[in-house]
Amino acid sequence: MGRKLLLKDINVPGIKSFEVYRKMGGYASVEKALKTMTPDSVMEEVKKSGLRGRGGAGFPTGMKWSFLDRKSDKPRYLICNADESEPGTFKDRFLMEYLPHALIEGMIVSSFALGANTSYIYMRGEFRWIFPILEKAIEEARAAGFLGNNMLGTDYSLELYVHSGGGAYICGEETAQIESLEGKRGNPRNKPPFPAVVGLYGCPTVVNNVESIATVPHILNMGGDEYAKIGIGKSTGTKLISASGHINKPGVYEIELGLPVEEFIYSDEYCGGIWKGRKMKACVPGGSSVPILPTELMLKTAKGEPRLMSYESLSDGGFATGSMLGSGGFIVFDETACIVRNTWTYARFYHHESCGQCSPCREGTGWMEKVLHRIETGHGKMSDIDLLVDVAKKIEGNTICPLGDAAAWPVAAAVRHFREEFEYHVRYPEKVKDPKHFEKEPFVSEKKAVAA
Amino acid sequence: MAKVTIDGIEIEVADGTTILQAARQIGGEIVPPAMCYYSTLKNSGGKCRACLVKVAAGSAKDPRPMPKLVPSCITTVQDGMVVENITNPTVLETRKGVVEFLLLNHPLDCPICDQAGECDLQNFAYNHGVSKTRYEEERRTFEQHDIGDKIKLHMNRCILCYRCTYVADQLTDNRVHGVLNRGDHAEISTYIEKAIDNEFSGNMIDVCPVGALTDKTFRFKQRVWFTKPLDAHRDCPKCSGKVVLWTKGNDVLRVTARKDQYNEVKEFICNECRYDHKDMNDWVIEGPRHIERGSVISQNHYEKIDLVKLKADVERQLKFQEGKRLNEANNTPA
Questions:
Q1: Which of B52, B135, B186 has its CB closest to that of A398?
Q2: Number of domains within chain B
Q3: B228 and B279 in contact (C-beta within 8 Å)?
Q4: Beta strand A118-123 with A159-164: parallel, antiparallel or unpaired?
Q5: CATH number listed for the domain at residues A339-442
Q6: Which of A359, B92, B206, B245 is deepest in the core (most CB within 10 A)?
């Protein structure tokens, strides 16, 4: 059994309520921080822990906090990014739904560390039913004196608000989220200036993922150094992985970073192997925007070392032979899955969610979707495959926010690793007319057959 | 002061200047194209990605190159910055890509578009694009709308530069239109048609880089290159009153604000000047308008005809015609 922090008490009955959560040791970090620590020492602990942002980019949380402009006399804000909309990722929803107080506790200590007196939880519009759960948790915490003016007899005050978005993927991008919170259209801002200097209402702001914030109380309880011992190398601590796809046991799992990928997929403690006794074909390890990898490269790196669930190991080999841990949306495909169809589905999503502000993303995502649809339905040409690569290359890195990259990477990676399947679609248009073509007749790589 | 090198040319500019503005101070070929940036509109820029440049060295203090191409219109210069624009093949390749993206859903209706001849997108595509498209699918289309009684919105042609929304935000007293929907279905719109009736709404037409917003009092009247631009002014209580009259004979076909060489209006004009004074007698004519670039008018410089060159051209043409006749005579079988 790997070590559990966030989901340690998930099976305790009534953990959603304040009393049970408090009985299990909840809100201890708030008392510790407010009564015995200074904001700077809280930040120091988080820095020592080596906690990396759990939202996808993996930027060290402590460092992000230290960039916050403390010199200005403007108010500072903390925003919790609960706009989890990445296809394949559902860990934050799980956390907020079943452990709402974990997030509230994290918000309190993080706001204390940053000196924020008003903090927001920006929640995805589709999470309607979680809204009352969080509101109730906030009310319970306030009744117990953990929120409001002069908390626990100190001179620190905090107000916490839950804000529901309108259901746009782009509002998960931090500057778009800030715009949306200000009541404007959720368009990402040009950077610099970064939110740490000019953020919400023009004031210094930190935007953190739900899981990152919920981890902070554990860091304070056990100490930053102790937390840094969990995990491997620069990937410290535990991480929630939302496993989905063709596996026996889909769900949210807490793993210690550094767990071998093979163990995660095949052990009964986690995914429990591929369903229906089939073989694995490919895997997207970090949510739909990270590159897809074929089984060989997923289980072992290009150098032949076993691949581990960590920020470094998953990105080993760059995009040529590696991928990213991303937000931890672990999607497994068995041998009957059609990579072209899957890539088209992703492209359709990004086409639908592009905000339309900058031209490469606005026009390019739609173009890629249309070309992929053509190939998938058997109307493609060989030149379309190279066209896809070229369009992806022209979007990547040339947009205001990372949505352009997120749209381009999966397409480029799918062509890179599964070119033969794209060619199959062009060569046998009659066979691929049926959407379930690979279930009837699994795809066999001719290249590998020749090599064997 | 900051010293920057753009394509090997060094220039010293004030702190806080953007790369694009620094390049404009140098002028010429190295000025990056701009489709959405507008110097007189705050917060504009960064959207079209036409002006992306490579920063080969960030500053004298930190000479590392920037990892991605940066939009030159909103990136401020640092002392010791080295910028590559037309000398960098990646930049030119990316720009080709941006042209292709902008033209994907843009209709090829230049022959009936009033903007043709002074269209930023035409110039941009001609200078930086390729002549063929690889796009085979159907273009997305919208219905045409009226914004007020004087402006036609042709959304198919829009490249979503957001300039007109900034005009609405910054020049007029209350915000009347904005962007609806997202992605390639995003459109400039107002909820209640014909609701825009403020004094400066007409400037949307001038800032539009393409033919998405056109003047209904000028639509389909005349091709731009058949009109003569004249500088003129009048005493206007609402605006500076400095305009350009686009005339044919003694008819004033169109009134616009004065644009500089980068097609930017420095002094916006009011709707009264724009629509209600289409009579030569209402204006004090200053003389022919000199248009340096950004318009087809700049090609023949009619305001200073070189008579010697014209004579030589005519003679050459006559000689050529004569030669043709001689040849025909010689080739005709007897």
A1: B52
A2: 2
A3: no
A4: parallel
A5: 1.20.1440.230
A6: A359
| Spatial distance between the Cα atoms of A224 and A374, rounded to a whole number of angstroms | 52
**pLDDT tens profile A149-166:** 999 999 999 999 999 999
Interface check A55 vs B, CB under 8 A: no
Burial class (CB in 10 A: 0-12, 13-18, 19+), B239: buried
To the nearest 10°, report the CA torsion of B153, B154, B158, B162: 0
What is the CB neighbour count within 10 angstroms for residue A383? Answer: 10
Structure tokens belonging to residue B5: 């090198």
Q: Domain range holding B251?
A: 110-131+142-288
ipTM: 0.91
**Within chain A, how many helices (H) and strands (E) appear?**
20, 13
- Give me the phi and psi of B292, to 5 degrees please: -85, -45
Residue B309 in this model has a pLDDT that exceeds 80: no
Q: Which residues contact B93 (CB under 8 A, 6 or more apart)?
A: none
Question: Which of B46, B94, B134 lies closest to A400 in CB terms?
Answer: B46
The answer to whether B259 and B277 have CB atoms below 8 angstroms apart is no
Average pLDDT, chain A: 93
Contacts of A360 in chain B (CB under 8 A): 49, 97-98, 101
pLDDT in tens, B257-286: 999 989 999 999 999 999 999 999 999 999
Q: Which of A387, A202, A407 is nearest to A290 (CA)?
A: A407
Residue type, A129: W
CB-CB under 8 Å, A353 with B49? no
> Between chains, do A360 and B71 touch, taking CB under 8 Å as contact?
no
Q: Which residues of B are less than 8 Å from A394 in CB distance? A: 94, 97-98, 100-101
Question: Which CA distances in Å does A325 have to A55, A57, A287, A294, A337?
Answer: 10, 9, 8, 15, 22
* Burial class of residue A196 (count of CB atoms within 10 Å of its CB; 0-12, 13-18, 19+): buried
In chain B, which residue ranges form alpha helices assigned H by DSSP? 19-26, 89-104, 120-128, 163-170, 203-207, 271-275, 307-331
CATH pick for A18-229 out of 3.30.429.10, 3.40.50.11540, 1.10.8.60, 1.10.3720.10: 3.40.50.11540
